[in-house]
Design goal:
This protein is α+β, with helices and mostly antiparallel strands. The protein is built from 24 helices and 10 strands. It has 5 domains: 74 residues, no CATH class; 50 residues, no CATH class; 145 residues, Nucleotidyltransferase, domain 5, CATH 3.30.420.10; 169 residues, no CATH class; 82 residues, no CATH class. 52% of the residues lie in helices and 10% in strands.
Length: 597
Amino acid sequence: MMKTVPKQVQVKSSIATPAPPTIDLTVTPRPSTPRMPSAAVVSVSSVSSTISYQCSPADTLTSKGSTSSAVPSLKGTFFFDSMDNSTRQKADESLARAIYASGSPLMLTSNVYWKRFFNTIRPAYSPPTRYALSTNLFEAEYVRVHDKVTETIQNADCLAVISDGWSNIRGESIINYIITTPQPVFFKSVDTKDKRHTSEYIANEVKNVITDIGCNKVFAVITDNAANMKDAWKIINEEYPHITPIGCAAHGLSLLLGDVMKLQTMQMLFKKAKKVVKYVRVRQIISATFSQKQMARKKSTSLKLPNKTRWGAVVIMYKSLLGGKESLQELAIMELVEIDATIRNILLDNVFWAYIVSSLKVLNPVASAITQIEGDSSLLSDVPRHFKNLKEKLTIALPQSPLQKQEENDTLTFIENREEFCLKPIHAAANILDPKCHGDDLDNQQISSAYEFISAMAHHLELDEGRVLACLAKYLAKDGLWKGEGVWASAQHISAATWWKGLCGTEILSPIASIILQIPPTSASCERNWSLFGSIHTKVRNRLTNAKVENLVSIRSNLILFESTEDTSTQLEVDFENDEVAASSSESDDLDDMQTE
């Protein structure tokens, strides 16, 4: 009988990686079965360095020169993966950046499931250790971001310093500094330790920041409206006359809400509303029944309580009550649900609900103005417009409100007082120079103060004051360059600063206008930055040093500077929802807990 000579198939593959492997395979038909056509399929992928093979069911696969026994019929894929040092370094940097930007724990790469995930997508890649993520990779990323911040500040033609303070998870006092370029960038935070927050201390700290970034390009300092801050403004302005201290307009409007809520009628209504909300929220059966009824109506299932860090908190609570009015009144008349008689009477009182509606007509315009003014795109020119609109709306709403006549007059006085504090000559100048406003929101006194401010700016920038005011006259009269309608129509599609730099760049008034129209009216960017601090320095991470937290916040906050498009964000939604979580979890027991002065 003739011997069956094994048919030998030798397959060699050359892969575009260091030291490409060669594989010899021998396919031997089984002698006990009818011979079937042998098949050996080899495919090479240059991207993943993959060799795949397939053998027919009747074949046995062995390696050439191997003494191992026959292997059963196989079908599968071999991975021969490798990474050069440059690719590995880029992968480490990208992974580290993603961890810092998302606030993920550094121990992530030590988790067995993450290791398996990385091995699945790239077998040759071994992620960096926790130690590497917290040392050299972290330091390199911080330096990269810090250099970008420095470059952004150096390239800006107008800077404003925004400052605000808070207490961290350990109760330590921290002061935050944001620089607007006009895009807000996190500059640094300062642990005040045992230093008292006197006006002298605050002024010196702000002056240090001004010196670091260059005093000639700083034109404004924005803070809250605390008494020590007001005194610090005077010290700063004495040394830098061209720098205008500005009180946060959003905080001023919030104080206006507090003024109104101190009125006796509003205080009584607030206490009743809060009593209802707390009663429903803390009782499990009542709360669950309310949620079921709201879900059936496809409405929000939660009632909101005011929080001292939440601007317009009372408005949010009143709106949540109105949104659940029908369900709450159903609860009040249900026999299966036990409700306190006092709460039942409030829920079934039509006067209570009418007062909620009419009070909202007074409070909602203020809350709406706060929401609009605290955005990063808001300008100084918006502040006069908001106060003008407030006076018009409240003049109509007050006679229909539950307030007494004297309380109505007091409310109008509150508006005048807060407007006087919030509106400075720089706001009036911005309103005049903003092509969307053109000074339409100003009275004669404010217009006069705007002219004086523009003249002072011209002097500081070493411009001819006479020519500057002559150019301003042409602008206001819509003469010369501003004669055509197309110039004014274009202002609706670009920022006011860009409009002056681009279309009006040849005019002597342009540098003054573009500077004023880049300054923000609020310290809201500082408030939002505290959300990052809160999400990084948590109870779980309370051992982090303040310096480490500062660097983590710097990376996470300023990565946006590397993005090329305006609609791309490196921040997560949780960064902006942190205040919402705090608002729903923290309950104020007294009206005084709100931001009032």
